[in-house]
């Protein structure tokens, strides 16, 4: 097995973390070294999510870790939660995505918009990994523009009937439960969007894995079809209302992604440094050449900036002061940064950099998805543009 | 079962250590510290014994600087009930001083331990001393480097992996056991455990230790390994390899 991951900490950012936060980070780091790293390369090439890791992740308490203990969760603060995402994505973006979806996109909306009965029924089961969830917002023709969705829910005398299709749904084929966002009013009424808890074995619900992905290969991505799916009245998340509800979920998940990207970047930097010191060309380690040193200096600089961004964003979030726009800035910057770091690391590794035995190209390919999902880089640019100017570029 | 586990804060086994300017200590700046790996087996064993018994208490002891509280909290996060730190900035090189302080503390409060567990050695000094010394000071039987443990009432059976075989030892409780690798698979401190550890009692008691009769004169890093030599490839290289092993390396 490769050496234990030591992290990247040029600016003593560790000193900004509490003892518990570091303990959480170190536990997840060790778990990733021992359980994820040995299997991820093969899982990626095979195009399968390493499902056997789910019980271990649940036992550690990685699912919905920032939700309260009364629901079987770890009750961590948002910085500790972010560090979990960082460490998981140091392993692989697909595995971090799995945890993000379970926690921030399924458990979080049930916790935030659900009734007491819904919380008691679903949250402990999801924290323990016995129930896996997926989040159905994006549709084949409505990605960056979710307000345009055409999935509808119609009230019947004993519940609701859902019709529509969802696409790019992480965990879709694995999940036992889906949070489905649908319009309860007319198609031009985005305010009528509500969330529903839909068991995936409901009549008329089908999930099919999307094939041919060259990115996030160790993650299941599915298309969901809902054809006259009947659900009981209490499937509705009572406190959900309007597009704002799913967007709140996305803000929660994007927050974790901002941290996760730092993890992927650190993995690539770490690999690049060790390779640069060992690989000898023209009679000396390639780390002794100026071009490679420039690459490494740039990587370290950008990672360090992103780390500081995350810690401060986490502290703001814990104080209830963070804004969705701040989360957009962090997601946008950090994922773009990580993509650049992964690309440069891959190049530094020369021909070896294209092999699954090394990490850089896997991370690079993954990060292209992370760059695109949860609000594309461009969408976050426009969110910031609107924040700065007060003028929306969307409408 | 009432079980004591004595643990030590040591530099992480993969930390790149530097020697301090005085040449007698590690430079601790930037070095990650944690629980001595053999002590993790001891903590895990204590937790399993308590879980099997269905009742009892696991108390963790450590002797070291204030920062060793963090090491104790790792054990609390794994599931130990409470911790006691014998606080001193200078951990003496003589294990007997540490053993005396720990033995006094273990006797304090009435003792009554069914088991006292240690790691078989600390990975920073490789001394293998403190466990057996504490046993001697407390007048208890001691089995070292235990790789398998069975407890049945007031009797225990331990297996020790010795050169070329396994030695089986029977002993009466209470006893001191030092844990070897393979005794168990230590659990991760789960996130809920890390949060719970904050609320568990951790007592700090300052201790004054004697200098002991052992002094560290100097520390040195191992010399750099010389670069390897590639003799050739395939079967054709074998005669030359054998010649070099015989004549240069002198290992054949």
Could you walk me through the main structural features you see in this protein, from its secondary elements to its overall organization?
The complex is a heterodimer of chains A (395) and B (252). Chain A is α+β, with helices and mostly antiparallel strands. Chain A has three domains: 13-127, Orthogonal Bundle (Butyryl-Coa Dehydrogenase, subunit A, domain 1); 133-235, Butyryl-CoA Dehydrogenase, subunit A, domain 2; 244-389, Up-down Bundle (Butyryl-CoA Dehydrogenase, subunit A, domain 3). Chain A has ten helices and nine strands. Chain A has a four-stranded antiparallel β-sheet with strand order 2-3-7-6, with helices on one face. Chain A is globular. The N and C termini of chain A lie far apart (53 Å). With 252 residues, chain B is an alpha/beta fold. Chain B has a single domain (2-206), classed as 3-Layer(aba) Sandwich (Rossmann fold). Helices cover 27% and strands 29% of the residues of chain B. Chain B is built from six helices and 13 strands. Chain B has helices spanning 37-53, 68-78, 95-107, 130-138, 191-197, 238-247, and strands at residues 2-7, 9-11, 18-19, 26-27, 33-35, 57-64, 82-87, 115-119, 142-152, 155-162, 165-172, 175-179, 202-206. In chain B, the strands form three sheets. Chain B has a nine-stranded mixed β-sheet, with helices on both faces. In chain B, strands 2-5 form a two-stranded antiparallel ribbon. In chain B, strands 3-4 form a two-stranded antiparallel sheet. The longest helix of chain B has 17 residues, at 37-53. Chain B is globular. The N and C termini of chain B lie far apart (54 Å).
């Amino acid at each position: 097995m490769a050496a234990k991951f030591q992290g990247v900490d040029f600016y003593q950012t560790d000193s900004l973390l509490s003892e518990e936060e570091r303990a959480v980070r170190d536990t997840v780091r060790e778990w990733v070294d021992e359980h994820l790293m040995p299997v991820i390369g093969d899982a990626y090439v095979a195009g399968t999510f390493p499902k056997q890791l789910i019980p271990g992740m649940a036992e550690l308490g990685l699912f919905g870790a920032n939700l309260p203990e009364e629901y079987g969760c770890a009750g961590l603060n948002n910085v500790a939660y972010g560090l979990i995402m960082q460490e998981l994505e140091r392993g692989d973006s697909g595995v971090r995505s799995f945890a993000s979806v379970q926690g921030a996109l399924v458990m979080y909306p049930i916790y935030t918009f659900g009734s007491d009965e819904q919380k008691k029924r679903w949250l402990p089961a999801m924290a323990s990994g016995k129930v896996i969830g997926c989040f159905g917002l994006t549709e084949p023709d409505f990605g960056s523009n979710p307000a345009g969705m055409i999935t509808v829910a119609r009230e019947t005398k004993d519940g609701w009937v859902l019709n529509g299709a969802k696409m790019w749904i992480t965990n879709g084929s694995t999940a036992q439960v889906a949070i489905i966002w649908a319009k309860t009013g007319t198609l031009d009424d985005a305010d009528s969007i509500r969330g529903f808890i839909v068991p995936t074995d409901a009549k008329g619900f089908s999930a099919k894995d999307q094939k041919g992905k060259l990115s996030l290969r160790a993650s299941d991505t599915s298309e969901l079809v809902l054809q006259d799916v009947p659900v009981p009245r209490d499937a509705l998340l009572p406190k959900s209302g309007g597009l704002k509800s799913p967007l709140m979920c996305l803000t929660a998940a994007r927050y974790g992604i901002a941290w996760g990207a730092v993890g992927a970047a650190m993995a690539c930097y770490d690999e690049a440094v060790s390779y640069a010191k060992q690989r000898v060309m023209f009679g000396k380690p390639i780390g002794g050449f100026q071009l490679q040193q420039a690459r490494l200096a740039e990587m370290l600089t950008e990672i360090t900036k992103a780390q500081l961004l995350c810690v401060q964003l986490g502290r703001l979030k814990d104080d209830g002061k963070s804004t969705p726009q701040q989360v957009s800035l962090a997601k946008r910057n950090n994922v773009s940064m990580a993509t650049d770091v992964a690309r440069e690391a891959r190049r530094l590794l020369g021909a070896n950099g294209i092999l699954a035995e090394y990490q850089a190209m896997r991370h690079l390919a993954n990060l292209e998805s992370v760059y695109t999902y949860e609000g594309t880089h461009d969408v976050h640019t426009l969110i910031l543009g609107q924040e700065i100017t007060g003028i929306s570029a969307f409408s | 079962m009432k079980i004591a586990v004595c643990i030590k804060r040591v530099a992480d086994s993969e930390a790149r250590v530097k020697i301090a300017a005085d040449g007698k200590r590690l430079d601790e700046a930037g070095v990650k510290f944690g629980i001595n790996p053999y002590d993790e087996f001891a903590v895990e064993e204590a937790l399993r014994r308590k879980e099997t018994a269905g009742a009892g208490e696991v108390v963790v002891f450590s002797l070291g600087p204030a920062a060793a509280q963090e090491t104790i909290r790792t054990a609390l996060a794994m599931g130990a009930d409470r911790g006691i730190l014998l606080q001193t900035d200078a951990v003496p090189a003589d294990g007997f001083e540490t053993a005396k302080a720990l033995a006094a503390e273990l006797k304090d409060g009435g003792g009554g331990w069914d088991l006292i567990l240690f790691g078989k050695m600390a990975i920073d000094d490789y001394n293998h001393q403190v466990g057996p010394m504490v046993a001697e000071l407390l007048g208890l039987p001691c089995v070292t480097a235990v790789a398998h443990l069975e407890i049945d009432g007031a009797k225990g059976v331990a297996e020790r992996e010795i050169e070329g075989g396994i030695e089986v030892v029977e002993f009466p409780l209470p006893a001191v056991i030092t844990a070897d690798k393979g005794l168990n698979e230590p659990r991760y401190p789960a996130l809920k455990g890390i949060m719970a550890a904050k609320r568990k009692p951790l007592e700090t008691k300052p201790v004054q230790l004697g200098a002991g009769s052992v002094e560290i004169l100097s520390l040195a890093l191992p010399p750099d390994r010389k670069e390897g030599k590639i003799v050739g490839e395939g079967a054709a290289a074998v005669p030359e390899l054998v010649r070099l092993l015989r004549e240069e390396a002198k290992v054949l």
